[in-house]
Specification:
This protein has 307 residues and is α+β, with helices and mostly antiparallel strands. It is built from eight helices and 13 strands. Helix 3 links the parallel strand 4 and strand 5. The longest helix is centred in the first third of the chain and has 17 residues. The mean pLDDT is 94.
Length: 307
């Protein structure tokens, strides 16, 4: 059976084919098709973030479907916007791929991007396509603060409560299964392929009075270390408070503390904050620097692209 490749369509044929798959939300004045898109920002400020995903480094086509790759690419960027306390509005895609890549693969990728954006009311508004030796995705996400203050890494203060919203360790456990040639338990493998960020937790954290917040993408200890450094404080984690699901297996605690790609949100809140059950206290902020786990520094862990 003959299949159509993106080389058969060419650059502009591919652009025309995939942009038809993207619906445009109310924040978009002008979507794909011009030199640039126009997205309204009623707040007067635009939250912007970007990520690169490289085949073989962030995903493997024999492990993840193109639809899952699209969902994951969108999720990790939309989560960064939400972690600033903003509502995601738009996403731009830079797509590089070998010319022999099937058009159906690119279309499924774009369907994944679109469907993840639909969860938060955002739109894919444009981007670029190029030929490349491997699949590369450069994703930029935009967001609107809606008049609220932005949540950064710099506001944590001694006495604050450290709290977690979302799950951790699942994606790391799923990755280890795939690396060992296994595909069960299916729920853990799915967590690696398609994260589930608690998008509403970002704007909710603003309303709850959070002093600092970030998306946990590279490991809880490592990412809380960024808040500690930016705020000039010490963060003390209590593992008796940290949710450690038994289904993660014998390395569960390590996966929860150091595993990336789940995109839970970790934040700091004033001690008097009335936190709902979705926000689980896991420690406190103190004078000093760095991150302590049960009173001691934790060993190496967390993701670093150059290690």
């Amino acid at each position: 059976m003959w299949t159509i490749t993106i080389g058969d369509l060419g650059e502009f044929g591919l652009i025309a084919r995939i942009t038809r798959r993207f619906t445009q939300g109310p924040a978009v004045d002008l979507g794909p098709g011009d030199d640039a898109a126009i997205v309204r920002a009623a707040d007067g400020r635009v939250v912007a973030t970007s990520d690169l995903l490289v085949e073989g480094r962030h995903f493997r086509r024999d492990w993840s479907s193109p639809y899952d790759v699209g969902r994951k690419a969108a999720a990790q960027n939309l989560a960064d916007v939400a972690a600033m306390g903003a509502r995601p509005t738009a996403l731009l895609l830079g797509f590089g791929a070998p010319p022999e890549t099937e058009v159906a693969w690119a279309e499924a990728l774009c369907d994944g991007l679109r469907d993840e954006c639909d969860l938060v009311g955002a739109s894919v508004v444009g981007g670029d396509v190029v030929a490349a030796s491997e699949v590369v995705l450069a994703v930029t996400a935009l967001g609107d603060l809606g008049g609220a203050r932005a949540l950064t890494r710099t506001g944590a203060r001694p006495g604050d409560v450290v709290a977690l919203n979302g799950r951790l360790g699942y994606a790391a456990a799923g990755l280890r299964l795939l690396e060992s040639g296994r595909s069960e338990p299916a729920g853990l493998v799915a967590a690696h392929r398609r994260p589930r960020p608690p998008y509403d937790a970002g704007p909710e954290a603003v309303r709850l009075g959070a002093t600092a917040l970030m998306d946990v993408s590279d490991g809880l200890v490592q990412d809380l270390g960024h808040i500690a450094a930016a705020s000039g404080v010490r963060i003390e984690l209590d593992t008796s408070l940290v949710p450690v699901p038994a289904e993660l297996g014998p390395d569960a605690l390590h996966d929860v503390l150091t595993g990336g790609d789940d995109h839970a949100f970790a934040g700091t809140f004033p001690p008097e904050a009335d936190l709902p059950s979705a926000w689980r206290p896991i420690g406190r902020v103190a004078e000093g620097h760095g991150v302590a786990v049960d009173g001691r520094p934790y060993g190496a862990g967390g993701w670093d692209h150059f290690e």
